Amino acid sequence: MMNTVSKDYVIETQNLTCCFGSFTAVDRLNLKISRGSIYGFIGPNGCGKSTTIRMLCSILRPTAGIATVLGYDTAKDVNDIKQHIGYMSQKFSLYHDLTAIENLNFYAGLYSLTKQEQRQRIPELLSLLHLDYKEHALAATLSGGTRQRLALGCAILHRPEILFLDEPTSAVDPTSRRLFWNVIYELSHQGTTILVTTHFMDEAEHCDEAGFLRAGRLIAQGTPAALKRSINGQLITMDSTTPLEALARLKASGISYLDAYIFGKKLHVILSPNADTTKLDNYQKAEPTMEDVFVYYDKHEEITEKKEAMKI
């Protein structure tokens, strides 16, 4: 039975929770995802991204809380939800002894596409996914990035309204990642709502909104621009022979800072809002990346958890 659904949000959760015994994988998650948008779940492995996806796809039943997808209750309207979504897991099942086009034909049959729909849809996908020249190649012979694009094609054959992608670029090269995201953009422009999980912080830049997960908890969410603005302090980078030497200079200066961490070959420092930068030399002001945002909120959450533990 279909619930009343917001015209603005196609995915909504209220205190969505999933526990495995005494372990809480997802902890009171609250989401509102707009139709046609790209929403990214960002965070390290084991933070609850995949578990959330599985609950939204009605594969896992929540321990507590509510989730609706297109107005359907994920715990009750399982068959209704599966008709309207596409789901690509980290290990999407392709048949390696079938060619690319044979895999697409097989999944078209599973989705009950008519012969006419197959004749129209499959050439469209081969072109969209840059698979035209690989349609007769066995799936087993395809590169990792090409197999991922083929798996995506199988997941969207039936034109789902919502597409769930669970770490689709985790095992592909940078060129394939870029091509994959170009396809995601195209699907979004066509009106598909996309929820994608990743542990690559730079991929958050491609999302309309992103949510950072830590130990099953949503610690921050918003547009990339809003998340960057939310950092309470000025970001600078310090050059030195080594980042550790820069850290020693920072501490010796006595300047007030909120956090400092090694970022590649440089030291990134979040200064306190009223820090006196005249005490520093050899530094540059910098615009925060999404990785800076995650480090900032992750550190804030860690401090909060320690304070709560001390109260017990």
Count all strands and give the number.
14
Coarse structural class = alpha/beta
How much helical structure, as a percent, in the residues? 25-40%
| Distance linking N and C termini | 44 Å
Please report which band the strand proportion falls in: under 5%, 5-15%, 15-25%, 25-35%, 35-45% or over 45%: 25-35%
- CATH H-level superfamily of the largest domain: P-loop containing nucleotide triphosphate hydrolases
How would you state the average pLDDT, rounded? 90
SSE order, as H and E? EEEHEEHEHHHEHEEEHEHEEEH
CATH secondary-structure class of the largest domain: Alpha Beta
Estimate the global geometry from the Cα principal axes.
globular
Number of helices: 9
Multimer state: single chain
Do you know the CATH topology of the largest domain? Rossmann fold
- Enumerate the spans where pLDDT stays under 50 for 5 or more consecutive residues: 1-5
- Domain unit count: 2
Radius of gyration: 22 Å
Would you identify the CATH architecture of the largest domain?
A: 3-Layer(aba) Sandwich
Largest sheet: 6 strands, mixed
Structure description:
This protein has 312 residues and is an alpha/beta fold. It has two domains: 9-227, Rossmann fold; 229-311, no CATH class. It has nine helices and 14 strands. The protein has helices at 49-56, 78-84, 100-110, 115-128, 144-155, 174-189, 224-229, 243-253, 290-311; strands spanning 9-20, 23-34, 38-42, 64-69, 72-73, 85-88, 162-166, 193-198, 209-214, 217-222, 234-238, 257-263, 266-271, 283-285. The strands form three sheets. It has a six-stranded mixed beta sheet with strand order 6-7-8-3-9-10, with helices on both faces. Strand 4 (64-69) and strand 5 form a beta hairpin. Helix 3 (100-110) packs parallel to helix 5. The longest helix has 22 residues, at 290-311.
